[in-house]
Structure formats: structure tokens, C-alpha cells
Amino acid sequence: MADGDQDNQAAGAEVSYLGIADWIHRVTEPAIRGAMRALQLPQGSRGLDVGCGIGTHTMWLAEAISPGGHVTGVDISRNYLAEAEKRAGERGLGERVSFRYGDMSALPFDDDVFDWVWNVDILYIGPKETGMPAEDPVPVLNELARVAKPGATIAVLFWSSQKLLPGYPLLEARLNATYAANFIYRDDTKPESHFLRCLGWLQAAGFEDPQARTFVAEVQPPLDDATRKGLAATFQMFWENAQPEASASDWAEFQRLCQPDSPDFILNLPDYYAFVTYTLFYARVPAK
After folding, report:
1. Each residue's pLDDT tens digit in the chain (288 positions)?
2. Is the separation of the CB atoms in 116 and 152 below 8 Å?
3. d(CA 136, CA 190)
4. pTM surpassing 0.85?
5. Among candidates 240, 274, 272, 268, which has minimal Cα distance to 254?
6. Domains of the chain, start order
């Protein structure tokens, strides 16, 4: 792929993300905020949100450590950072959050700056040609530790599961089995590169007391408009590119159940129930 094609693809992905981010966050918010509470981040502390995107988590983190404290968001997308700064200003958080351009493999900060470091859905490991940020997680984790103080918490979160089509388990299983729904993995991906092996990554990086916990975000009627849009966007995020791999009947069933303009749209069920989970991996930076 030519550099220009890659740039255009990245720009298209940014536009797509900006269009659905708020809706997706509406669905995932309970799990993300649950993880924040579990970390017991100190009030008035100074933290770093790596891969902050449009700053939603950055602002939630600032609320979690209030009163006082400060959270810096860093991202490689200047478009996302501009949107994050705008939103923080609109919410009156301009003095409690700030945003910097930077790559997580070479963060633009001095050593021993932050009381904790947070990142969500960015530390996927795999071949660079597939768009993954790293083939080896340990150097990235070491870079997160470099900018953190001794004893600081390093938190790594991943969207780890979902059940979105109640009553249609086989259809959902077949859609989830497509490469489109597992785009970050290939047949030759090493087992230890799967995100649920993150405890091993933290151990290999020399962190202390690595732990894992999973948090759930549940949805059930009545569904407000934002939640409905968030779930519809989630259906598309996971499965909209699965058509070449899905059978004709499965694809027709997906369209029937998951398109908002379908008379059989699954979110219209009075007994609809679904959930998504986020898994939190966390550990402490050792003393120097």
C-alpha cells in the first residue's frame, strides 16, 4: 500500500471513529468507570492517558481524581487531540486536563513524572504491516514505566467480550469467527500475543504484583436513543466487513436483525439484553 493510500485510510478511520465514538462510549461507560474506581486513583494525583483519542476517558479520569489533580492525554492523531481540547473546554475542564501529540513508543515526557498511566484498546500486539502498534509489548510497557514514578500504577484495558444478539447464539458465534471480527489477528499470530496474555507482558516488563479484573457494561430496555445508536454502531464495528466470509443466509439474518430500519431490528425486542466486558490488567512500577 502506498503512503498516500495509508494516509487516506487513516483519515477515513478517524472520520468514522469521530462519528460513532460518543455512542460507543455510552455503551461501554459503566465498565470503564468501574475499572477507574477499582484502581483507586489518588485524589489530586497526576496521571497520563495514553491513546486518549477524543479525550472522553481523560475527562472521566479527571473526575475520578477530583478534587484537584491533572490528567494529560497523548495521542498520535492531531484531529482527535483538537476535538479533545474543544470538548474539555466546553465542559470547563481546561485546567484539569491537557493534551499532547506523541507516540506511546516514545512518549514526549521526562522520566518519573506521573503517579499512574492508563491506556485502553491500544496495546494490541502483532506484525506492523497489519497496523499493530508493536510486535513486542515489553518495550512499550517499559516506556510507560519510564514516565511514571516508582510505585506508580500502570493500567492496560481491553474490550474483551460481548454478547449482543440474544436468542441468536449460533449466528453471533459465526459472525465473531470471521477474520473481519478478529482483524488484529492472523493464523500465524503467536498465542502469547493475545491481549488476554497481558499478565505475562507485565511480568516480563518487571512490574510488581500484576493483576487482572473484568468489568461488565449491561444494557436492557428501556433503551434511550444514544444507547440504541451505540449498540447499532457496535454491530457495524464488529461485523459490517464480514459479508465476504459469511454465508448468504447469515448475512441476510445479520441485516434483518442489526439494521435500524429493519422491521425486525433486534433492539426493538421488549426483552432485549446484552453486555460487553472490559478486562483491566494492572501492576506497579518497581522502585529504582
Report:
1. 334 433 433 333 444 567 688 889 999 999 999 999 999 999 999 999 999 999 999 999 999 999 989 999 999 999 999 999 999 999 999 899 999 999 999 999 999 999 999 999 999 876 666 556 667 899 999 999 999 999 999 999 999 999 999 999 999 999 999 988 887 777 777 888 899 999 999 999 999 999 999 999 999 999 999 999 999 999 998 999 999 999 999 999 999 999 999 999 999 999 999 999 999 999 999 987
2. yes
3. 11
4. yes
5. 240
6. 3-162+188-218+270-284 (3.40.50.150)
